[in-house]
Design brief:
By secondary structure, the chain is an alpha+beta fold. The protein has 4 domains: 3-35 and 211-271, eRF1 domain 2 (Nucleotidyltransferase, domain 5, 2-Layer Sandwich); 41-208, Beta Barrel (OB fold (Dihydrolipoamide Acetyltransferase, E2P)), CATH 2.40.50.140; 280-399, no CATH class; 415-494, Hypothetical Protein Ychn, Chain: A (3-Layer(aba) Sandwich), CATH 3.40.1260. Helix content is 31%, strand content 27%. It is built from 14 helices and 24 strands. Strand 1 (3-9) and strand 2 form a beta hairpin. The termini are far apart. 29% of the residues are buried.
């Protein structure tokens, strides 16, 4: 399917949209003040070891110390032989407090968690991933032709040394062997530079930074289906042109510079599609809809028939709604960049063949996802559990922040609940307010309720407490905010 890449560059951020037939499939946003650290290599210092968790925290110069598990130290290296059932060695035998080492960020800081790091370094080029210090030779699972896999493996075995490994990327399929060897030489020379820099660097310090977002897109996303690369920034256009000329000359003709007026993302209403991707509710063409909720632990997707009543019977209506949802969900996960555990609540189906078809549709949609996904069978409750590798923060976390009113709950107390809470607090202060004037400062909706629907209750409470109670609107208060101000003068003296 034809694919276009839109690159919008401004002084404050860079945005990349991947579009198929007018529909936004993926969006990447990198802001000047919060650049991604994924792929960066640091010289870090161990600041804390947790033997009970087989983990350590490493200072790499970020706000929060980065996290490393023992498997981030040993997997991919010949430290021990897992084939013989050996357990992981104690992390205290591999690290000590104050130790300096080269580490690479594999996951960005998310929420209260610091970055995830590994000492198993890797560097990517167009065709290869270079693994210094490893002997692993791997080929992308997306390359299915066995003859091609054999050819690529032969190229790698001929050029690999003992202390280095390679993974062939999908883009290397049918690539010229000389170009692959050229890539390997480029990665080797870059690693030598990083290793030399690491010897003299003082921790915590950045030793290597991955490519900026537009160039990462050229390296990682361009494929045979890419028909257009549209850029609205002259300098970025020049840089991309040189990159394509050097590494992907067959796609150089796809690169076009577009005037920044109108805004590039307006050409396919991409901003509108990004805005829609922030909503919980996703309408389906049939009239059904999805409800997507992201939490700290997982993301849930609920499928509903909505206004779709079907044409045949209930089972058919449910099947068609689930089938449409299964086709839409993979795109939503990519577009929203949702990672971690995802629970999909399909509408319960009786027909086993219908269940298989729905699951097959879901798996088919995941095949075009560049991020690794694992999907389970539909459970007896109609649930599908799946995982999607999380590296960057979701679109929601990138663009939005928790509501200062509800603090991320998604709900606020009703005006009625706040009024009742005020009454309870007044009763708690019975001795303080007795014989005095009392002022309730609250939002407009709460004050309106106090002087209208709750007027009798306010009057009765004032008599019970032997106090004068009045209300005042505070425009800056949220619905949950209020203050009770008690006069320091006795009521009789005030009069």
């Amino acid at each position: 399917m034809a694919e276009e890449i839109f690159i919008n560059v401004s002084a404050n951020e860079t945005r990349v949209g991947v579009v198929e037939e007018g529909l936004l499939q993926e969006v990447f946003i990198e802001r000047t003040e919060t650049k991604s650290s994924i792929g960066n290599i640091y010289k870090g210092k161990v600041v804390r070891i947790l033997p009970g968790m087989q983990s350590a925290f490493v200072d790499i110069g970020q706000e929060k110390a980065a996290f490393m598990h023992v498997t981030d130290l040993i997997d991919g290296h010949e430290v021990f032989d897992k084939a013989h059932g050996a357990e992981h060695p104690a992390i205290t035998s591999l690290l000590y407090d104050g130790q300096e080492l080269l580490v690479q960020v594999t996951k960005e800081p998310i929420g209260t968690k610091g970055a995830r790091i590994t000492s198993n370094l890797s560097m990517a080029s167009r065709y290869l991933v270079y693994l210094p210090g490893s002997s692993h030779i791997g080929i992308s699972q997306r390359i299915e032709d066995q003859d091609e896999r054999k050819r690529l493996k032969g190229i790698l075995e001929d050029l690999s040394d003992v202390e280095e490994g390679f993974i062939v990327r999908t883009a290397a399929e049918n690539a010229n062997g000389e170009d692959i060897i050229k890539d390997a030489g480029y990665l080797r020379s870059r690693w030598e530079g990083i290793r030399s820099e690491g010897l003299v660097a003082k921790s915590p310090e950045v030793v290597y930074e991955d490519l900026p977002l537009p160039l990462r897109v050229m390296r990682d996303i361009i494929n045979t289906n890419t028909t257009g690369i549209l850029v609205d920034h002259s300098e970025t256009h020049t840089v991309l042109g040189r990159f394509l000329s050097d590494y992907i000359p067959e796609k150089e003709s796809c690169l076009k510079e577009i005037s920044s007026d109108p805004v590039l993302f307006d050409i396919h209403q991409l901003d509108d599609q990004i805005e829609a991707a922030l909503d919980r509710k996703v309408p389906l063409k049939s009239g059904g809809y999805l409800v997507i909720d992201q939490t700290e632990a997982m993301t849930t997707v609920d499928v509903n028939t909505g206004a779709y009543v079907g044409k045949k019977d209930l089972e058919d209506t449910i099947y068609r709604t689930n089938l449409e949802a299964a086709a839409a969900i993979p795109r939503q996960l990519r577009l929203r960049n949702i990672g971690g555990i995802v629970i999909i609540d399909f509408i319960d189906m009786i027909n086993e063949e219908h269940k298989r078809q729905v699951l097959r549709m879901l798996e088919k949609g995941q095949q075009s996802d560049r991020v690794k996904c694992n999907v389970t069978q539909i459970s007896e409750l109609g649930l599908v559990e799946m995982t999607r590798k999380r590296t960057y923060g979701s679109l929601l976390k990138t663009i939005c922040e928790p509501c200062e009113v509800c603090d991320g709950r998604g709900f606020i107390k009703s005006a009625e609940s706040v009024c009742l809470e005020i009454f309870i607090n007044l009763q708690r202060k019975a001795k303080e307010v007795s014989g005095k004037e009392c002022l309730i400062m609250a939002s407009q909706t709460v004050v309106d309720r106090l002087i209208d629907e709750q007027a009798n209750n306010v009057r009765e409470l004032a008599e019970l407490l032997d106090a004068d109670i009045s209300c005042q609107v505070e425009p800056g208060y949220t619905q949950e905010q209020y203050d009770i101000v008690i006069s320091i003068i006795e009521r009789a003296q005030a009069k």
